[in-house]
Each structure stands twice: as structure tokens, then as C-alpha cells.
């Protein structure tokens, strides 16, 4: 952990197929049932949220990245979420259910969130970034890093062209290598 590292001031993640799977639109009801297990090497907690037939879980490397955030590796960075989930109430149920560390909910890591495609949000993530900027006026798009699987559309390319946001595509769920590649864009 280097204190001289140059970092973006804001880092934003997509949820479905970037930090967790499966995608919310594939679920037939809201996941609410906590599934406990081992949080990698960090102890036990809620590792999944189930609706009885499907369980939403973080990708193992996305959990590791979230644990690095939770442990304070990036003290001056604001973390947020930009998801065009078709079922934002499902997303929020998972965010308030999943643990990152024992006793620390995923929701607590992300003070700014834009989730859904209603109330000013659309399938285009420029709308989510406008909402995030409203929540966090200090946000500077050119000093923001974004991760998205982009399996449905090129959100990373769109935000780069439209707003100057730098991003990394995570087509198989966020890996630690992709996270480092993103940080390297700000060296
Ligand atoms: Mg996605």
C-alpha cells in the first residue's frame, strides 16, 4: 500500500455482472434471504442473498476489491454505484444484505448511488452520472474511474466520449487485474 500513489478522486462501479451476479432482471422475485458463509479469508458473514431459487453473490475478486476499500486502502477516494438495473428494489435488497467484512454491509461502502432506469435515470449511464454529481458536487468526471461489464452496451465508451470519464470493461465480472488497470489510468 503506497501513500504516494496517484488515484482518481471518485471510483464508480456497475453492479450486475460487474460486482455481482446474476443480473437482477433474470430473478423472478426479490432476494431477501441471507446466506451465510466465509467472506474469503476475512471471517464469516452474509455471502449471498437468495429468493429461494437464485442467490446473488459478489464475484470472488470483486469481494476482494470491496474488502480493500473497506479496510481503508483508498481513504481519499469516494466510491459509488451506477446501475441501470430493471429491478432497483432487488438491487437495494442485495446491497443492504451482503456483507463485505463481518458486520459491514456492502451498502456502507458506497455513499453515492444511482440505481434503476426511472425518475431521471435511463438505460444510458450519462443519466446515472448526472445523478451522482448532484449527490456529490465535488465529483469531477475527468478524475473519475468507472467499471462496467458492458455486455449489453458500451457504457464505458459512452461515458468517456460524453463526459471524459475513464473506464475499464469487466466482461466476466471485476477482476483484481482489471481494478489495477483502472487505477493505472491515473498514474
Ligand atoms: Mg452490468
Concise account of the structure shown:
This protein has 187 residues and is of the alpha/beta class. Helix content is 26%, strand content 25%. Strand 7 (99-101) and strand 8 (104-105) form a beta hairpin.
Walk me through the structure.
- 26% of the residues lie in helices and 25% in strands.
- It is an alpha/beta fold.
- It has a single domain, classed as HAD superfamily/HAD-like (Rossmann fold).
- The strands form three sheets. Strands 9-6-1-10-11 form a five-stranded parallel β-sheet, sandwiched between helices. A four-stranded antiparallel β-sheet has the order 2-5-4-3.
- The structure holds magnesium ion.
- Magnesium ion (MG) is lined by residues 14, 16-18, 148-149.
SSE layout and pairings?
Elements: E1 10-13, E2 20-21, E3 33-38, E4 44-50, E5 55-58, H1 60-70, E6 78-83, H2 88-97, E7 99-101, E8 104-105, E9 112-115, H3 126-135, E10 144-148, H4 155-163, E11 166-169, H5 176-184
Bound molecules: magnesium ion (MG).
Magnesium ion is lined by residues 14, 16-18, 148-149.
Sum up the structure in keywords:
alpha/beta, Rossmann fold, five-stranded parallel sheet, globular
In this entry the ligands are: magnesium ion
Rough outline = globular
> Main β-sheet: number of strands, strand sense, barrel status?
5 strands, parallel
Helix content: 25-40%
Classify the secondary structure makeup into a structural class: alpha/beta
On the 0-100 scale, what is the average pLDDT? 96
Uncertain runs are none
Mind telling me the CATH class?
Alpha Beta
Gross CATH architecture: 3-Layer(aba) Sandwich
Q: How many structural domains in the coordinates?
A: 1
What Rg, in angstroms, do the CA atoms define? 15 Å
User: Can you count the helices?
Assistant: 5
In spatial order, strands of the major sheet run: 9-6-1-10-11
CATH fold field value: Rossmann fold
InterPro entries: HAD_sf, MDP_1_eu_arc
GO molecular function: acid phosphatase activity
Organism: Triparma laevis f. longispina
Protein name: Magnesium-dependent phosphatase
Amino acid at each position: 500500500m503506497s501513500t504516494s500513489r496517484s488515484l482518481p478522486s471518485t471510483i464508480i462501479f456497475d453492479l450486475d455482472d460487474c460486482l455481482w451476479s446474476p443480473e437482477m432482471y433474470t430473478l423472478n422475485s426479490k432476494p431477501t434471504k441471507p446466506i451465510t458463509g466465509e467472506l474469503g479469508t476475512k471471517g464469516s458473514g452474509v455471502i449471498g442473498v437468495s429468493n429461494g431459487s437464485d442467490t446473488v453473490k459478489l464475484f470472488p475478486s470483486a469481494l476482494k476489491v470491496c474488502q480493500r476499500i473497506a479496510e481503508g486502502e483508498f481513504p481519499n477516494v469516494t466510491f459509488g454505484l451506477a446501475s441501470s438495473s430493471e429491478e432497483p428494489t432487488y438491487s437495494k435488497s442485495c446491497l443492504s444484505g451482503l456483507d463485505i467484512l463481518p458486520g459491514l454491509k456492502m451498502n456502507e461502502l458506497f455513499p453515492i448511488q444511482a440505481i434503476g432506469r426511472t425518475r431521471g435515470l435511463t438505460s444510458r449511464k450519462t443519466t446515472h452520472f448526472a445523478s451522482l454529481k448532484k449527490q456529490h458536487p465535488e465529483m469531477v468526471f475527468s478524475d473519475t474511474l468507472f467499471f462496467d461489464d458492458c455486455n449489453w452496451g458500451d457504457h464505458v465508451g459512452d461515458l468517456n466520449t460524453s463526459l471524459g470519464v475513464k473506464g475499464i470493461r469487466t466482461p466476466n465480472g471485476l477482476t483484481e487485474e482489471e481494478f489495477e488497470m483502472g487505477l493505472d489510468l491515473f498514474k
